[in-house]
């Protein structure tokens, strides 16, 4: 009986821990750093996208960022960046608001520039 309760407790703990990890969608990568994003619907019909760079497995200083995607598929002019973090660290999160159905341009970079980039539909991002 005690074993059953302990097993149930472990299963419940594992189940509850998973959503916290799933809130960040891993996107572009560079030298072990990964830009992570998530979305939150807003009351005004827009969607707020949060981005951070997780450099816990990185080998170089890295930063992340986001932008809107124009109708021609190219990045817009609303660049928003995280701070640059050393290997072993996770940056602060930055945000940018989007119209529903938009696409977000996500980047990862070094101190000298963008090293990885890709456009994502908002539907590809986990909810925050």
From TrEMBL:
<feature type="signal peptide">
    <location>
        <begin position="1"/>
        <end position="22"/>
    </location>
</feature>
<keyword id="KW-0732">Signal</keyword>
<protein>
    <recommendedName>
        <fullName>Secreted protein</fullName>
    </recommendedName>
</protein>
